[in-house]
């Protein structure tokens, strides 16, 4: 087995790059990593090292488009509630469930 040419500093640089650019492809990631460490690094090396650090890939699930009926219902709801303001109509908002973001 060969000694790894990837150093601990290189791995830290990769982690920082992934955390800052978490939506880029491995090809783009390897380019960013190569620029950061000053030498060429293959896409497969980038993928392997990221996987060792616990990063994984996934493909986002495709969501179906809204149907014409759903669009119409949303428009009706929006028109009914267009004058709601949190300051003037606290009573209106008491029945609304708010999420924490």
UniProtKB/TrEMBL annotation:
* A GO BP annotation: DNA integration
Q: Where is the Transposase Tc1-like domain?
A: 11-83
Q: Which GO terms describe its molecular function?
A: DNA binding
UniProt cross-references to InterPro entries, sorted A to Z? Transposase_Tc1-like
Organism superkingdom: Eukaryota
Q: What is this protein called?
A: Transposase Tc1-like domain-containing protein
Annotated source species: Ignelater luminosus (Cucubano)
